[in-house]
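Local shape tokens

___
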Amino acid sequence: MVTAMDTDTIEAFKQRLLKKRRGLLQSIKKSMGNSRSSDARLTFEIVQDNPDRSVDELLKHVDSHVLGSKAAELECVERALNKIRQGTYGECESCASLIAPGRLEVSPDALYCVACQGEREDRQRLDSVHADKPEHPGPGSYLDDDE
């Protein structure tokens, strides 16, 4: 049975979350700075048929993906810190049961218990499979309006 956390434990998690937030903010700031300097270099390129340009575009795309991932992680950290302020830290956002302390040790910004997190990941996997699957054409879709 999982019991509520004492104030010292919550304070320790709060300090870990604040440290993680600082690191994420620094990383995001650095990524944004790198992106700006890369954009400026691309803008001032004179030769359009530069083989490095495709590499630069790929790196820009990867940087954008990494930046989005860090922003999502930062959002989870902010939500966890907000839960500390509200006195609900450690409660699953889905079922309201207490999140196992071991899970919070590994991931102090966890918002869901193991069972609910698993269900969310299963739903996301199914959604992505269905999104990638092409729709079968209907019976009249092969005919033009004029036919």
